[in-house]
Design brief:
about 240 residues, membrane, transmembrane helix
């Protein structure tokens, strides 16, 4: 009953206010302090709405000029766009961590079950992603000093990631894809009936490919996982 009475009082109060506003023109009430307060509130709100965008733009330009923050348009559409303000190093690490956290084959390849062609596709996606995202860090070479900064370390490590992936893909991608396409067209029975792990072993450079997979996995496990806080233990990999 108390709850019902409480809600009833609220309804009556709101109803009374609505009736009052429907009968009385508050703008014509001849009370000096109310009209003064009303004018002051309008003046303050108008001033704030005018100055806040200018202040935000000024701060944005200062931060970008000092290389302290990153300005990034995530999505651009007719209706509008999203803007992110963040420290470049933190933004870059978060972007890489989110992306790499689903790329298990970078840290551990299962050649019995993983399709190598799809793995190569995934590696190329990572290569392009890191190459594009490294722009967030800016030109660290111009800011290098005797003391290695966090941004410089991330920049160098990211370039090393690009180099390792590029070397691996340059060595194996073209030859493996041509062989895979040939087997798909010329040996359909084995292509569709053999387990993928057994089929891949017939690739002429399989041993070298597996060796280079191990080297690449070791690089990402030992040098990349910890830096970007990738949880590799979920894939049964011991942290370096």
């Amino acid at each position: 009953m108390k709850q019902i009475a409480k809600w009833l009082n609220i309804v009556l109060l709101i109803g009374g206010i609505m009736v009052f506003l429907g009968i009385v023109d508050i703008q014509k009430i001849e009370v000096h302090y109310i009209s003064t307060l009303w004018r002051n509130l309008i003046f303050i709100s108008t001033t704030l709405f005018t100055l806040i965008p200018l202040l935000l733009i000024t701060l944005l330009l200062v931060f970008i000029g000092l290389k302290k923050w990153a300005f990034r348009v995530e999505k651009l559409s007719i209706g509008g766009f999203n803007v992110l303000f963040d420290n470049p190093n933190q933004l870059f690490k978060r972007q890489l961590r989110t992306f790499l956290d689903t790329k298990r084959t970078l840290f551990k390849v299962d050649l019995e079950h993983d399709n190598i062609k799809e793995t190569l596709d995934s590696y190329f996606e990572v290569y392009k992603f890191v190459r594009d995202e490294i722009k967030i860090l800016g030109d660290e070479k111009k800011r290098k000093s005797n003391k290695i900064s966090k941004g410089t370390h991330l920049y160098d490590l990211s370039n090393e990631i690009i180099k390792e992936l590029n070397d691996f893909l340059t060595t194996h991608q073209s030859n493996y894809r041509r062989w895979y396409t040939y087997i798909e067209k010329r040996d359909e029975e084995n292509f569709y009936m053999k387990p993928i792990g057994e089929l891949q072993q017939s690739y002429h450079d399989y041993e070298q490919l597996t060796t280079d997979f191990e080297k690449l996995n070791k690089f990402f496990t030992e040098q990349v996982a910890a830096e970007f806080d990738i949880n590799i233990e979920k894939w049964g990999i011991q942290s370096a």
